[in-house]
Write a structure and sequence with these properties.
275 residues; mainly alpha
Length: 275
């Protein structure tokens, strides 16, 4: 395959170019026709519109007397200026929204591809997942889902049932930028596990204000007061429970490549007996 990009055939572009020029000329004539006529009306000359045609553009440089006789040129030009400004102000949001919706970088998803993550799409998913929001007309953003970014100024949110994978360098703010905001804004209960204290220190105050906060910190990493305990060996009161618990320990202690080791296989029946 050639590394050079394939150019556009002029024969394919020409019809669209002609259509665009014609549409632009039509809009310009409409603004001049309406603006000049409104200016004449405001000046007291009454509603006297000239013929609507493209020749209006050709006659305008020679003055406004031919199309609006007896009307002060200042009134005509003022009406055209006001009409043009109002049309531009009304068209700008439409053009901006269209650009956001249809624009995309090569190889990347556009806003149309991400419609399920837009505010409207996230609210639709939230109504489906949470019956309490099914009849809500306006759903607060944090109730709809987790903020994961933006596309051309439009917020993108995933639902609270989605799984997020963040690939970030060490000390790049994973906890403060992702974990803590998600835990603080979650509308329901949160189970947060971390081996660092910053996850606790950044979330304990706002989560405590919403309900009871349970902290399991046997190694005193956070130096938090512990008012509950979890007995990891409570399940090992039967042989079956001990076997199941030992299976978890063995699976975590050895990698997949080591599971064929003789000693690993041999410890499986022995560990449950040590209870």
């Amino acid at each position: 395959m050639s590394g050079e990009g394939r150019g556009h055939d002029p024969a394919d572009v020409a019809p669209w170019l002609i259509l665009a020029v014609t549409a632009a000329a039509g809009v310009l004539v409409a603004m001049i026709w309406l603006g000049g006529t409104l200016g004449a009306l405001v000046s007291g000359a009454g509603w006297r519109p000239p013929p609507f045609s493209l020749t209006l553009l050709l006659r305008l440089p020679d003055g406004t007397e031919q199309d609006w006789p007896g009307v002060p040129p200042l009134a005509v030009w003022s009406g055209i200026a006001v009409t043009s400004g109002a049309t531009t102000a009304l068209a700008a949001p439409v053009v901006t929204a269209g650009y956001r919706w249809f624009s995309r970088n090569p190889g990347l998803a556009g806003l149309r591809d991400l419609r399920g993550l837009t505010p409207r799409g996230a609210a639709k998913v939230a109504r489906r997942l949470r019956p309490s929001l099914s009849g809500a007309k306006n759903i607060p953003p944090d109730q709809a889902g987790m903020l994961i970014g933006e596309h051309n100024g439009v917020e993108l949110r995933g639902s609270w049932e989605d799984v997020y994978l963040a690939l970030m360098a060490p000390r790049s703010g994973k906890t403060t930028a992702l974990v803590a905001p998600m835990a603080i804004r979650a509308p329901g209960a949160v189970l947060l596990t971390s081996r660092k204290s910053d996850a606790y220190t950044t979330t304990w105050a706002p989560r405590s204000a919403r309900g009871h906060l349970w902290v399991f910190d046997p190694q005193q990493i956070c130096h938090a007061d512990q008012d509950w305990w979890w007995d990891l060996l409570a399940e090992a009161i039967t042989v079956e429970g001990a076997r199941r618990l030992s299976g978890h320990f063995i699976a975590c202690a050895f990698s997949a490549s080591e599971r064929s080791n003789y000693w690993v296989a041999g410890c499986r029946p022995d560990v449950p007996a040590l209870r």
